[in-house]
Amino acid sequence: MGFFNLNKDAGSSSSPSGGQAVAPEAALQSSLEENLRGLKATLGQSSDVICREFMIGNDQPVKAGLLYTDGLTDTAALQDFILESLMLDLPPKDEPQSTDSLVTALKDSALTVGEVKEVTSVAVLLKGLLSGETILLIDGSATGLMVSNKKWVERGVTEPNSQTVVRGPRESFSENIRVNTALIRRRVKDPNLWIEPKTIGVRSKTSVELMYIHGVVDDQVLDELRRRLDRIDIDGILDSGHVEELIQDTGFSVFPTILNTERPDVTAAALLEGRVAILVDGSPFVLVVPALFMQFFHSPEDFTQRVGFASFVRLLRYFSAAIALLMPALFIAITTFHPNMLPPPLLISLAAQREGVPFPTFIEAMLMEIAFEILREAGLRMPRSIGSAISIVGAMVIGTAAVEAGFISAAIVIIVSITAIASFVTPVYDMGFAIRLMRFGFMVLAAVFGLFGITIGLIALVLHLCGRRSFGVPYLTPMAPFNWSGQKDAIIRLPIWMMRNRPRLISRQNPVRQQPMADAKPKPPGSGNSEGAGENG
């Protein structure tokens, strides 16, 4: 019966033409006709899988079969470098040779392509065929050849959309995993930059690759990542977001513990710090682990701008995050429970604005926040040409009309608008979304307990963040646990020549990334070549 017998657990299956499917764990047979018939039955006579039968050689022809998936294979190269080499260019042999030796001769001498592999397993053959490889089967041999001949329509390297910068590289990842690895290799030309392949998804067979610098990465983090990936048992992986959700640290939290980025320069910088990159075929976003809280407020242009400017903008991001998180809650608490904290002229102005407003301040703020979130989501889903215009005009019209109708006060429109603008300052969308969700919780606490509720919420938030870990690394590093070396690239950024060491809890094997140099520190003109640049570690 050969390999056409199905697993007992799999049940019976047949193709539309009545043939019997192939058991995935089976091996190829020596009969070409039996191999082709079984493979066609397994694939259900799919119209995009092309099968070409032909003869190899002139004086002693051997029957062969060629299979490829239309749309995933380079048909021009197939004609020029495979079929032509087999049917026309193969030199005649003086003595007959076995089919196994013929397969070896074709692999070593006839096929003028970069990568040719021998295959004997049906599962490996089907995976290669459906990934764009060309499969060559020889009558009389139980070994086939898998020729690397992939080509499909894909989006090229474009400018990043979600993580834009004023100064810095303009390249972003694409959906092709090999293009993505090449973009990183171009920046890190280190032989210790290793790529570890994995296949995840019982049906999708998605290619997932781990990228790290051997000798710099923490082996404990790498082993934990391998264990989590090996535990995944799912039908299909269609995007890196699926992998992110399946391997992230347990526990319900709105704060991300895995960084996703579409920028090769961000990924290369993370690899040099000792982190691990996870690339998923078909996704333009690469995952980086471990990811810490401070990292989500850093932008790639922090290291392309001058130190003073970069530090000021980074402080501005933290201040904006605090505004986005607490400003509506503070307004609710002060106007509802602590009006004596306001100057009398401002208190009188707010009281005059609220005259005739039927809702309390908490309901006003909630209505405006929900309306703004709806407008933001509508702007994302609408066509780009009108999405931004609709969101801006909608917010202006709704806010103005609501104030004139007496439903809300003008002060709450100002508060919600400033909060919305501040929420866009966070460089990483996932962290900005987490702050938006936490804002509603603080608004509820402020409406119930006033400033005491906000204080309790902040204490609970800090305790929650202190208890979080990303692949074993404390989430608030380097603030908790505190270390002086990590402060050089935490809240502000010091000059690059002062940051000699990698993050202490990220890379434990090779912590030094920059050797001290006598002329590392810039010196004023005429100061001479004084030795030493100070201890920077």
The parts where pLDDT drops under 50 for at least 5 residues are 1-13, 528-537
Distance between the termini: 69 Å
What does the overall shape look like? elongated
Sequence of strands across the biggest β-sheet = 1-2-4-5-3
What kind of sheet is the major sheet?
5 strands, antiparallel
Radius of gyration (Å): 31 Å
SSE map:
Elements: H1 32-42, E1 49-56, E2 62-69, H2 75-87, H3 99-110, E3 116-119, H4 122-130, E4 134-138, E5 144-147, H5 177-185, E6 193-200, E7 206-213, H6 219-230, H7 240-247, E8 259-261, H8 264-273, E9 276-280, E10 286-289, H9 307-337, H10 344-353, H11 361-381, H12 384-405, H13 410-423, H14 429-449, H15 451-467, E11 469-470, E12 473-474
Antiparallel strand pairs: 1-2, 2-4, 3-5, 4-5, 6-7, 7-9, 8-10, 9-10, 11-12
Helix pairs in contact: 9-13, 9-14, 11-12, 11-13, 11-14, 14-15
Salient structural properties:
537 residues, alpha+beta, 5-stranded antiparallel sheet, 41% helix, elongated
Describe this structure in words.
By secondary structure, the protein is α+β, with helices and mostly antiparallel strands. Helix content is 41%, strand content 11%. It is built from 15 helices and 12 strands. The chain has helices spanning 32-42, 75-87, 99-110, 122-130, 177-185, 219-230, 240-247, 264-273, 307-337, 344-353, 361-381, 384-405, 410-423, 429-449, 451-467; strands at residues 49-56, 62-69, 116-119, 134-138, 144-147, 193-200, 206-213, 259-261, 276-280, 286-289, 469-470, 473-474. Strands 1-2-4-5-3 form a 5-stranded antiparallel sheet, sandwiched between helices. The protein has a 5-stranded antiparallel sheet with strand order 6-7-9-10-8, sandwiched between helices. β6 (193-200) and β7 form a beta hairpin. α11 (361-381) packs across α13. It is elongated, with a radius of gyration of 31 Å. The termini are far apart. Residues 1-13 and 528-537 have low confidence and may be disordered.
